[in-house]
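Example record

The entry below shows one chain as it appears in the dataset: sequence first, then structure tokens.
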Amino acid sequence: MTEQTECYLGIDIGSISTKGVIIDGARRIIARTYLWTEGNPADAARRVVADLGSQVDRDAVRVRAVGTTGSARRLVGAMCGAAVVKNEITAHAVGTTFLHPDVRTILEIGGQDSKIICVENGIAVDYAMNTLCAAGTGAFLSSQAHRLGVEVEEFGEIALTSKKPANIAARCTVFAESDLVHKIQVGYAREDIIAGLCRAVATNYLNNVGKGKQIVAPVVFQGGVSKNAGVVRAFEDELGMEVLVDADGHLMGAFGVALLAAEAAPRAVAGASAVGTATGTGAGSADATGNAAADDEPFDFDALRDFEFATREVECQKCANRCEIICVYRDGAIIDSWGNRCEKGAVKTTA
């Protein structure tokens, strides 16, 4: 029998995109994927797992534990029997400090939100997030690219050809779009407008997300927008320092939570139980799909495809809290729930 490589899977489920990686025992990424969530995180998770499974030799790879992060981390964690479910701040900090032990500031801009993480001695000590204004996100750049008739992937290289970036007001999406239309009408060069948009993203981020934060080098820039060379240049100009971008920087949340899953795997084998939970208390245990981190039952790449998952929100009536509890069902049977603030709202899951 061929000796199998022990690996760990991480999934980052965002509102715009869903990312996934598989890392080996040496913590190297051996499979990676980046797909659009398309408003359906459960289906996106299925597609990510299927894509990752197609990139590896399943007979030679044994996924011992799964980790999830992102906005739909608990739902997908329940689906996958995740050993670890962590917030994006923790996942990004863990992944980045692994690659850059001396990092002091992490800048991250995704499709619909952005965040900054301040690090000292490898530990995240402060952070801020912006989920209210879209003016400094990937969604903003994509909409303006469509208006200009340019692929957003081309923005960076076009921006770098500009000699005099246009001054685009980016306090909010409405102001930015209005200013953009005005600049087009008065005849600004396309490259100057695009460079101005990239600069507006950087300044909007620093004035909002980074407000009051001490940005100290080394600085690492992550998220889908980090692939835009124009925004990277704008950050370097505004900060007056080098901004590092990793080839897999857009996958850092998935990488970080895969690292955390690897740390949880030894405990998972020792404490395997009947049903895994989205809180990590059943770390590595088999969930309703039959996935497990235990040595005798590795993660099954095909299991998610064979079951129908659904969620339902219920209001607990057992005390004055009236908690809104999210229940996750597999083929009509409840496998997990969360949202209760006391024991009265606890929901019995199907073993």
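Notes for this example: Residues 61 and 230 are 39 Å apart (CA to CA). Residues 268-296 have pLDDT under 50 and may be disordered.
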